[in-house]
Amino acid sequence: AGLRDLLSGVNKYSTGVGRIWVAVVFLFRLLVYVAAAENIWKHEHDEFECNIKQPGCENVCFDHFFPVSHIRFWALQLIMVSTPSLLVVFHVAYRENREKHHNQKLYKNPGKIDGGLLCTYLISLILKIGLEIFFLVLFYKLYNGFKIPRHVKCDIKPCPNTVDCYISKPTEKMIFLYFLVATSCLCIVLNLSELSYLMFKYSIKCYLKRHVKNQQ
Questions:
Q1: Is 205 exposed, middle or buried (0-12, 13-18, 19+ CB in 10 A)?
Q2: What is the pLDDT of residue 135?
Q3: pTM for the model
Q4: How far is 18 from 93, CA to CA, in rounded Å?
Q5: How far is Cα 154 from Cα 166, in angstroms, rounded to an integer?
Q6: pLDDT, position 57
């Protein structure tokens, strides 16, 4: 609920591309995560089976191949990439409080993206892009690629020899993995597009202002 309120708050101050980003995060990431992905990975440890019943063998093999639960990883990623948007919300709140404190109109529109708020908005976009890329790279490193193998070979102690371990519902998990990676890439593209659009728009605006000043 807190994440949903944050996203709807950000939506008020976003550009058109920013609103698409909010829709993608809310519909294709948050809802898919809550409605489907969480159920698929719910019993991943219980359903991980090795062809030997040596005490502790299954646990160490599971920990080796899944150092972080996919579900917790995506929950953390979702929270982290949405958090930079708070900078924009706080900046607008600061502007509104400042007007209340001085009891006069200090800004044409406190929620309009210009001046200091533009800098905050651009910083939030850069942070979101950086965090998305960081989490994609981290996932790739942790799991040796974007894949869910059907079975893995494990020879870590206390396993007496190389044992075969089997992962439950690998095809279903792969589909959701590709979907979540694709939406993460889509969010990077949207954030880059919005960043480019805002920088271009305000560069043109500054150039025209300078040009008018020179003409006068």
A1: exposed
A2: 93
A3: 0.80
A4: 19
A5: 11
A6: 85
* Number of other CB atoms surrounding residue 202 within 10 Å: 14
Instruction: Give CA–CA dist 154/2, Å, rounded.
Output: 41
Q: Give Cβ neighbours of residue 148 (< 8 Å, ≥ 6 apart).
A: 167, 170, 173, 174, 177
CATH number assigned to the domain with residue range 15-215, chosen from the 4 options 1.10.10.10, 3.30.360.10, 3.30.70.20, 1.20.1440.80: 1.20.1440.80
Please state the φ and ψ torsions of residue 146, each to the nearest 5 degrees.
-95, 75
Give average pLDDT by consecutive 10-residue segment, the chain, 216 residues.
56 74 80 74 79 84 86 86 83 75 65 72 91 93 86 85 86 86 91 89 80 72
Q: Are 206 and 51 in contact (CB under 8 A)?
A: no
Determine the Cα–Cα distance for residues 75 and 89; give it in Å rounded to an integer. 22
Q: How far apart are CA 30 and CA 48, in angstroms?
A: 26
Residues in the chain: 216
